[in-house]
Amino acid sequence: MVCETKIVADEHDAIPGTKKESMMWGSPAAPGAEPKDVRRDAVFIREFERGDQKEVLRIFHEGIMERIPNTAFRGIWQQPRTQFIYAFLTGSCFWVAVLDGCVVGIVAAQGQEDDNTVELRRMSVDSRYRGKGIAKALGRRVLEYAMRNNYAAVVLGTTAVKLAAHKLYESLGFCRTSQSEDYRLPGMSRSPLERLFFQIRHSRYRLQLREE
């Protein structure tokens, strides 16, 4: 399994459903170092390093809080660390987006050998750096990973309420396959009040890379 890949602008058309853009992103030549040929105002994607943990947890927590009602996810301050560790289970890769020397986005990919798919997980971008194409760069890294490792499709599930998130998945080539109006999050008691006031919509998406 190959976690580390490099994507350059001229290769974008090889990924189904994606469009070529001028942004450059790739892997650093050495841990913690930016590639010498990448501008300071360009985004590049590299594998997670231990020193990234503080910023990664902050970005992940911010993303989670935007997707769910506070009272429906009890123990939220403990959940990010637990779910963050989950990203490092066997068959997973975890990347960060770096801009101007700062970690500004995260994404994970977990291979599912039973159906030969990759699940895109934990994608989130620092709210101060949105609108710069960072989420699309992270998404394409997962697609490249899936193609390099000969997976048939990439799938994801999301409770995002913002239309922009769904448009992002569609711009990457994903198609919605299902939607639930009564999704249950960890920490929800399913009490009558929670069922009445905290109904959460969960959508599943799939991007078919090749036929089995």
UniProtKB/TrEMBL annotation:
Chief place where the protein resides: cytoplasm
Family, as annotated: Belongs to the NAT8 family.
Official protein name in the record: N-acetylaspartate synthetase
SUPFAM superfamilies, sorted: Acyl-CoA N-acyltransferases (Nat)
Domain N-acetyltransferase span(s) in chain numbering: 43-199
Topology within the bilayer: Single-pass membrane protein
Gene name as annotated: NAT8L
Catalytic activity, reaction form: L-aspartate + acetyl-CoA = N-acetyl-L-aspartate + CoA + H(+)
Entry EC no(s): 2.3.1.17
Leading EC class: transferase
Swiss-Prot/TrEMBL keywords: Acyltransferase, Cytoplasm, Endoplasmic reticulum, Membrane, Microsome, Mitochondrion, Transferase, Transmembrane, Transmembrane helix
Subcellular location: Cytoplasm; Endoplasmic reticulum membrane; Microsome membrane; Mitochondrion membrane
Family matches, as InterPro entries: Acyl_CoA_acyltransferase (IPR016181), GNAT_dom (IPR000182), NAT_camello-type (IPR050769)
